[in-house]
Structures are given as structure tokens and as C-alpha cells.
Amino acid sequence: MKKNTIWILILFMTITFVGLLLLQLKYISQTNEILHEQFVDGVRRSLYRTMRDLEEWEVKRFIDETIEGHTDDVKRAKDLINTGGSVTTQRFFFHNQDSLLRPTTSVQLGAVNSGTITDLTVVYNQRLYERFMRSRELIDIVTAKLVNEAPAMPLEERLDFVVVDDMLRTHLYNNGISLEYHFAVTDRWNNVIYNCHDQRFKITPSCFRQQLFPEDNSDKGYYLYLCFPEQREYFGKSMRLVIPSFLLTTLLLATFLFTIIYIFRQKWLNEIKNDFVNNMTHELKTPISSISLASQMLNDKAVTKSPLLLENCARVIRDETKRLSMLVDQVLQTSVLERGKTNLTFTEVDVNEMIENITMNFQIKVSAKGGELKVDLNAYNPFAMADEMHLGNVIYNLMDNAVKYAADDRPLLLTVSTMNEGNKLFITIEDNGIGMKKEYLKHIFDKFYRVPTGNKHDVKGFGLGLSYVKKIITDHKGIIKVESELNLGTKFIIEIPTINLD
User: Fold this and answer.
1) Residue 234 in 3-state DSSP?
2) Which segments of 161-306 does DSSP mark as H helices, in order?
3) What is the CA radius of gyration of the chain?
4) pLDDT score recorded for residue 334
5) What structural domains and CATH numbers belong to the chain?
């Protein structure tokens, strides 16, 4: 797949996912607003209904008190209405005297038994009229109390706060709200008259307010405040069905990002593989060409007659065969390392001595490059459990890289040193070569990876050496670090555990 095609797909998929996330956020926001509006509307309806019920409750209480206060009058009225004979019926109306009864017109009820239909009708109508007047008089009394007496009464005498609590709970439940609440009743100056909670009631912007007895002809003014301590948790629980949808969308987006990263990594690995195949073909082609040329020369009779030419052809075939075998071994070795089947033989190794032997043999190679090799073995405890052959190969590979990537404008300076810190042995290999950019450092231990060298094309290899180094050091329970700056040089630091000498 072409790189431009991948970027186009990423663009379209990004737009799709961003749009989907925005729609999800919009939906969550609108759902939250709807829930909030429903909650607020339900609370306000409950407060209004509570206020009306309290007014009705007060009217009923005054009616009961008025009826209880005139029990004798009511009894006398019943006797007058229900008694026959010569008892005179009375009409009821509001009067300032103690008794609500005053003599008015009379009808002889004794005539009921022997009178005409007209007399019966008159008596019946008289009774209905008397009942009506009595009811109106009671209503007048209650109304007078509501208008004149109730506004002047203390609120504690007008309300039963237990009844207020019951009304609030009932109306809130009927409106679908089952949250715990706190309520308080205050005057117009926010002085708390009653608080349902032990703690001090604090009026906040989230509290709901409803005026009590708004029709009172009074300047006092009473207000009912209602607060819900768990209001935020209520909305959070209501949004539980929306949150999983948002989480699934986020998970889908994360999967998309992971897929894109994986695609780019695979593309990068594919490019490395292609570079490896091309490089390996070039590396293998050279010794094969040399062997082929030498073998063709052996068919020449003139060559066979010259012992010197024959020896040179044999040497070329031998050297190039070794080189070809070494290249094949590197590939096979890396394959074995990848499968984790490295067979290491750990023995007690004097690392200082091992490095000294390697550097002595390597001195010729550095000198041929016109460079200098410095060895500074300061480790007082150089003993470690290691595979001497593989650990030696690690040191050799790192020194060989220093020679391969030496700068052309200055002599090579290669330094190998050791030191101890606690129970750790540090091996440092530092050069003043071409170095590398920091962006390459995190990839240099990857298999088949080769740092771009610009115009320097004479460096041989498959990009397998440092991956081998990393694997061997890891198998030794060690750590390898690299520090490098472009055009200044590179430093490899190896850390492995030592043997306790005590």
C-alpha cells in the first residue's frame, strides 16, 4: 500500500471518529440538560403543590377549630331542625353575641303531621335555608380568621413541620424524585425559623425556594428552601447508560490508533527487510563473484602452469569461502537468537584479561586505520559469570563498529575502559567517529536496522551486530546503553553483575 493511500485513509477515519465523538458528547450534553430540566420541573411542581396543600391544611384546621368552638350551637340547631311539635325553628347568621342563634320567623312543625302538601314544602325549604345559612356563617368565620388572625400568628403556630415534611416527600415521590433532601423555612431576611437537619442550614444557588402563604396581607413573608445533597450523584447515576457508549467509542478510537501505529511499524519493518535483502544480496554477491572468477581462472591452462597464480586462485577461493561462511553464520546466529535458543556456557571470567587479549589483537586493525587504541582497565573486581566467547564477540563487535564508522577528517581515537560501582562491572567503549542523531538511538538495537550514513556507502553488514550484542548482554542479566552526538562520537556502556569476592 502506498504511503499517500495510508495517509488518506487515516484522514478519513480520523474525521469519522472525531465526528462520532463530537456527536456522543453532544448527545451526553443534551441528555444531561433534559434530565436536569425534568428534575428542576419536578421539584418546583412539588414545592408549589406543597404550598397549596399547606394552605388547604390551614383552612381545614380553622374549620375544625370553628366547629369545635360552636359545638353547643350546632347541637341546638340539630335539635331545632329535627324536633316536631310546637318547637320553633330558628335561622342562623353571623352575630357578635356569644350565641350564633337568634329568633326569627317561626313555623309550627306540629302541623306537619296533619297539614297540607304546601305546609310540608314550606317546612322542608325552611330546613334547607337554615342549613345553608349555617354553612355560610361558618365560612364567614373561617375567612375572617384567615384574613385577620392568621397573618399575625407566629409561623410555628400556623404550620406543623412534620406535616410539611410528609407533604414534601409525597409530592417529590409522585414526581419521580426519591433523593434525600434537606429543607428549611425562613423569613424574608433569610433567618431560619425551622431546619430539618441538625447542622446549620446553608442557602446555596442549588437550593430551590417557594414562598409560603403568598396571598397573606402581611409584610413578613415566609419561604420554604429545599436542597438535595446528592444531586450530582443523581445525575451521575442517570448518565450511566450513556457513559458505556462513550467508553466503547473511545475504545474503538484507541483500537484505530493502535492499528495505525501497527501499520506504520509493519511498513517500517518491511522497508528494513527490503534493505536487509538488498544488502545481503550485495554482500553475498561479492564473494560469490570472486569465487566464480577464481574458478574460471583455474580452467586456464596458463594459470595451472604457474604455481604462483594457482596459489593466488586457491587463496582467493579459500578467503572468499570463509567470508561467505561468516555471512551465512551471522544470519543463522541471529535466527537462533530470535528463537531464544542461545546456548551460553557461564564460567568465571576475568573481564580485564579478556579485554586485554582482544585489544592486543585489534591493535593492528586500528593502526591500519591510522588511529589510536587506549585501554584503561580500572575495575578492581573484574570477575563475572559470563560466556567468554559471546561476551568477547560483543566487545569485538562494538570496537569493529568504531573502526567502520570512523570520521574521515580526523584520526580515530578508540578507548576501552572498565570500572566498578557496587557489585556492578561497567565496560565502556568510546570513539570519536561520525556519531549519530538522537532520533536513531532508540532503533540501533533493532534487528536489520542500520543507521543512515549519508555519503558513506562502504560500511558492510546486515544490521544484525547490535541486535546480537543486545541479546547477549540481556542473557548475562546486564544492561547496555548508548550515548552519541553527530560528528562527535559514540559511547557504549555495558553493565553486568560481578562475582562477590568475599
Assistant:
1) helix
2) 161-174, 231-238, 243-298, 301-305
3) 53
4) 62
5) 3-152 (no CATH), 155-234 (no CATH), 243-338 (1.10.287.130), 347-497 (3.30.565.10)
CB atoms within 10 A of CB 12: 10
Residues near 368 by Cβ (< 8 Å), separated by ≥ 6?
none
C-alpha cell at 220: 413578613
What angle (nearest 5°) sits at the alpha carbon of residue 192, between those of residues 189 and 197? Answer: 150
The amino acid that residue 386 corresponds to is A
**How many other β-carbons are positioned within 10 Å of the β-carbon of residue 492?**
25
Cα distances (Å, whole numbers) of residue 439 to 198, 217, 427: 65, 83, 24
Tell me the residue type at 153: M
Low-confidence ranges of the chain (pLDDT < 70): 1-3, 67-116, 134-138, 140-142, 144-150, 217-219, 237-242, 276, 279, 282-283, 326-327, 329-342, 448, 452-464, 502
In 3-state terms, what secondary structure has residue 257? Answer: helix
Q: What is the 3-state secondary structure (H, E, C) of 91-159?
A: EECCCCCCCCEECCCCCEHHHHCCCCHHHHHHHHHHHHHHHHHHHHHHHHHHHHHHHHHHHHCCHHHHC
**pLDDT tens for each residue of 166-182:** 999 999 999 988 888 88
| DSSP output for 365-411 | HHHHTT-EEEEEE--S--EEEE-HHHHHHHHHHHHHHHHHT--SSS-
The pTM (predicted TM-score) of the whole model is 0.44
Cβ neighbours for 63, distance < 8 A, ≥ 6 positions apart: 138, 142
- The residue behind cell 415534611 is 165
Tell me which amino acid residue 71 is.
Answer: T
Count of residues making up the chain: 502
